[in-house]
Design brief:
Blueprint (H helix, E strand, L loop, with lengths): L2 H27 L1 H11 L4 H16 L6 H15 L3 H13 L4 H15 L1 H17 L9
Length: 144
């Protein structure tokens, strides 16, 4: 084997290892919803699916400096601020529940976002969360 062939083999193995690690992290955080996102990309942009898993989850979400629940709170706030991200919000509301946030904590984070993002975006995010809560049989939420 030439040194170029060895480097190509090492790069392919490393790429596959990064993907495998990312898929593991994705599965623990997003579960079925994350796998559905990757499947939806598989026939149009498999490279984007690879990068979401390998880089987004294998590199970024796997970092130890923030707890998974903290990462989800940040993600919910960012997606709310961006607006128009309701499909991704639904995935990440599921993920937030998967990593231990309560529906009340999620609702409170989305309420808090109204101060910085405005009512329309906070309303859209809350209604996306409501869909997830309904799917998971969590409605009605107890009032404070």
């Amino acid at each position: 084997m030439t040194s170029t062939e060895a480097t190509d083999t090492d790069a392919a193995t490393t790429r596959q290892q990064r993907l495998d690690h990312g898929l593991d992290v994705l599965g623990r955080i997003d579960g079925e919803a994350g796998r559905n996102v990757l499947a939806a990309l598989s026939d149009v942009s498999p490279e984007l699916a690879h990068q979401v898993a390998a880089w987004g989850f294998g590199e970024i979400y796997a970092r130890p400096e923030l707890a998974p629940s903290d990462r989800q709170l940040v993600t919910l706030g960012m997606l709310t601020a961006l607006g128009g991200c309701e499909p991704q919000l639904r995935v990440h509301v599921n993920a937030a529940l998967n990593v231990g946030l309560t529906p009340q904590q999620i609702v409170e984070a989305l309420l808090h976002s109204a101060v910085y993002c405005g009512f329309p975006r906070a309303l859209n995010a809350t209604l996306a969360a409501k869909e997830v809560f309904a799917e998971r049989g969590l409605l009605p939420l107890p009032t404070a």
